[in-house]
Design brief:
By secondary structure, the chain is α/β, with parallel strands linked by helices. It has 5 helices and 5 strands. The chain is globular.
C-alpha cells in the first residue's frame, strides 16, 4: 500500500517546501508515501478556464493506475476533524489494494472528468488556501493521522 499526493505545479516557496519535506520524511516512517508533481501548463493565455482544467485533467489521468483509489482534495468535499480523518484513512488503507492517490488540482479546480473518476472528495477547510499551503497542510494532517492511530503524543485533544 502506498499513499500518493499528486499536485499540479511545483512548490516555489522554499520555506514551505522545507516543511513539506520534513513532514514527508516523518510520514514515510509509517507508510510508503510519494509526492508527485505534474508540471504546470505553459502558454495558458489562449485557453479558457475550462480548457485549462481539461488539459490538467488529461495530465493527471496519465499518472493514474487502474487500481488506484482516487481522492480529490476539493473545497466542496467532506470536512473531517483530525481524529475522524485518522479513522477514515485507516479504513481506506485497509480496503485499498495498491495506491491511494490524493490529488490537488490547479488554481481553477478540477475538470468534471476528474470529479466523475474520483472515489471520494475531501476538504481541508471551507477557507481558501494557496495550492502550496494545501500541500503542507495535507502532509501534516496525514502525519497527524498516523500519530493518532499509533497513540503517539503529537496530537492533543
Amino acid at each position: 500500500m502506498t499513499l500518493v499526493l499528486l499536485v499540479v505545479g511545483k512548490t516555489t516557496d522554499p520555506h514551505i517546501q522545507t516543511l513539506i519535506d520534513d513532514y514527508t520524511s516523518r510520514l514515510t516512517h509509517y507508510i510508503p508515501f510519494t509526492l508527485q508533481v505534474i508540471p504546470e501548463l505553459k502558454a495558458t493565455r489562449a485557453l479558457t478556464l475550462d480548457q485549462q482544467k481539461a488539459a490538467e485533467a488529461q495530465l493527471i489521468r496519465k499518472q493514474l493506475q487502474p487500481a488506484d483509489r482516487i481522492i480529490l482534495l476539493d473545497e466542496h468535499g467532506k470536512e473531517r476533524r483530525s481524529i475522524d480523518f485518522a479513522a477514515w484513512i485507516q479504513k481506506r488503507i485497509a480496503a485499498a489494494s495498491r495506491r491511494i492517490v490524493f490529488i490537488v488540482g490547479g488554481p481553477y479546480g478540477f475538470d468534471s472528468t476528474l470529479h466523475d473518476l474520483a472515489d471520494e472528495e475531501i476538504s481541508l477547510s471551507q477557507m481558501t488556501f494557496s495550492h502550496q499551503l494545501i500541500r503542507l497542510l495535507f502532509v501534516e494532517q496525514l502525519y497527524r493521522a498516523f500519530t493518532i492511530l499509533r497513540n503517539e503524543p503529537y496530537h492533543h485533544e
